[in-house]
Amino acid sequence: MTTSRPLLRTKLLQWLLVPLIALLAVDAVVSYFVALRFSQRAYDRSLAEIARELALHVVEREGKVQFDLPEPAQRVLLADPSDRVYFSVTAADGVHLAGDNRLPHAPAARPGAPVFFSALVDARPVRVVELDVPRPGGTEPIATITVAETENKRSGLAREILLSVVMPQLLLIAITGLLVWNGVQRGLAPLDTLKEAIARRSHTDLRPLPEGGVPGEVQPLVRAINDLMHRLDHTLTLQNRFIADAAHQLKTPVAGLRAQLELMLRETDPQRLREALSRQYVGVERLARLVSQLLSLARNEPEALKTVRLQPVDLNALMLETTMDWVPEALKKDIDLGFEGLDRPLVIQGDPTRLRELFDNLLDNAIRYSQRGGRVTVRVRDTARPTVAIHDDGPRIPVEERRRIFERFHRLLGSGADGSGLGLAIAQEIARIHDAEISLADDADGVGNTFSVSFSRTDAT
């Protein structure tokens, strides 16, 4: 069961919108409280003005403090269409002079400066201001004015401020969200186009993806995909070529074996059946060699050799062992197989198994095409580039054919020898692995050919 992963579009929207919305929300809250604070100050100043107006009517006559403001004037001063306003006048000795004696008092008052605080009157929240009235010409208070009003106007103003601040912010958040979403959509549109282009492709379409219109950050990814597709195309091409080569080369031998088997099934003479079996054995041997060479060719393709690890190899000792292995085959054709080596090791960097396979193919080619009673000589030379030369007495290869003989399945016409045309192609592939070069020239005595394999000299040599 696969777990769903969040889309890049969703992540981008989250990374952009969540901090932005949080920032705008904080801004809205701060703006609300700042505006509310200024509005509170405005209403507090109005409340303080009422307290000061009342203080003007506090007088001291003959040592007695009195509040001299008629009832009609009080009603006019305290009239408010939205809130109920309370007041209280209390002498310094605590005697209640006028107003509502239920109003609370501030814990501490400063002479001449109003003190604001919040309280409850009749279980209703009120804003209260308290102001001391000093004696004329002095600082000692003779009375205290307390004015309170309910908070209807303040609550209404708070709601208005909230709406006037929050609504534009919400609208701004919505517009910003749409802009961010549109920007993310536009930014990811090339990726959607790229996805659709890949989805529409056939599994056999390995052309490079177009890089036009792709954002710079995504181009390395597209280049990596194109490089992968190029390598995959090359690998599949090699695979298809191998399959085609194998099918082409196996078709004829298998058809021949099938025909011979059909003849053997109808044969009743034991002697003829034995002869047919012998021919069948030779055919199976050829088929086995062909399969072996096809597999070797596939194993030595350039793309299949990235894991090959080269190591120090004594080329002189390797060639001596390889030459000795081919002595029985040379004796079958009465060929003089000689070896001229060095009296010291000649070390190169290589893969011993593949190097033996390279020289096996060259020696097989030399012995196969040399005349009976001929000569094949293997020479190891320590020159600027360590070189192995194989001289044979086979038919001279024309100059115009010397490049083509290393192609797969290419054979010289009129050679008269059996072969698949793969041996030299395999040798060429192995030489490339070792950064070596195979060259072909006429033999020094003018008869036959000389195949030379020159290796790069490394620190190991």
TrEMBL record:
<dbReference type="Pfam" id="PF08521">
    <property type="entry name" value="2CSK_N"/>
</dbReference>
<dbReference type="InterPro" id="IPR003661">
    <property type="entry name" value="HisK_dim/P_dom"/>
</dbReference>
<keyword id="KW-0808">Transferase</keyword>
<keyword id="KW-0418">Kinase</keyword>
<keyword id="KW-0472">Membrane</keyword>
<feature type="transmembrane region" description="Helical">
    <location>
        <begin position="161"/>
        <end position="181"/>
    </location>
</feature>
<keyword id="KW-0902">Two-component regulatory system</keyword>
<dbReference type="GO" id="GO:0000155">
    <property type="term" value="F:phosphorelay sensor kinase activity"/>
</dbReference>
<dbReference type="InterPro" id="IPR003594">
    <property type="entry name" value="HATPase_dom"/>
</dbReference>
<dbReference type="Pfam" id="PF00512">
    <property type="entry name" value="HisKA"/>
</dbReference>
<feature type="domain" description="HAMP">
    <location>
        <begin position="185"/>
        <end position="237"/>
    </location>
</feature>
<keyword id="KW-0597">Phosphoprotein</keyword>
<protein>
    <recommendedName>
        <fullName>histidine kinase</fullName>
        <ecNumber>2.7.13.3</ecNumber>
    </recommendedName>
</protein>
<dbReference type="Pfam" id="PF00672">
    <property type="entry name" value="HAMP"/>
</dbReference>
<dbReference type="InterPro" id="IPR036097">
    <property type="entry name" value="HisK_dim/P_sf"/>
</dbReference>
<feature type="domain" description="Histidine kinase">
    <location>
        <begin position="245"/>
        <end position="459"/>
    </location>
</feature>
<keyword id="KW-1133">Transmembrane helix</keyword>
<feature type="transmembrane region" description="Helical">
    <location>
        <begin position="12"/>
        <end position="35"/>
    </location>
</feature>
<dbReference type="InterPro" id="IPR005467">
    <property type="entry name" value="His_kinase_dom"/>
</dbReference>
<dbReference type="InterPro" id="IPR050428">
    <property type="entry name" value="TCS_sensor_his_kinase"/>
</dbReference>
<dbReference type="InterPro" id="IPR003660">
    <property type="entry name" value="HAMP_dom"/>
</dbReference>
<dbReference type="InterPro" id="IPR004358">
    <property type="entry name" value="Sig_transdc_His_kin-like_C"/>
</dbReference>
<dbReference type="GO" id="GO:0005886">
    <property type="term" value="C:plasma membrane"/>
</dbReference>
<dbReference type="InterPro" id="IPR036890">
    <property type="entry name" value="HATPase_C_sf"/>
</dbReference>
<keyword id="KW-0812">Transmembrane</keyword>
<dbReference type="Pfam" id="PF02518">
    <property type="entry name" value="HATPase_c"/>
</dbReference>
<dbReference type="InterPro" id="IPR013727">
    <property type="entry name" value="2CSK_N"/>
</dbReference>
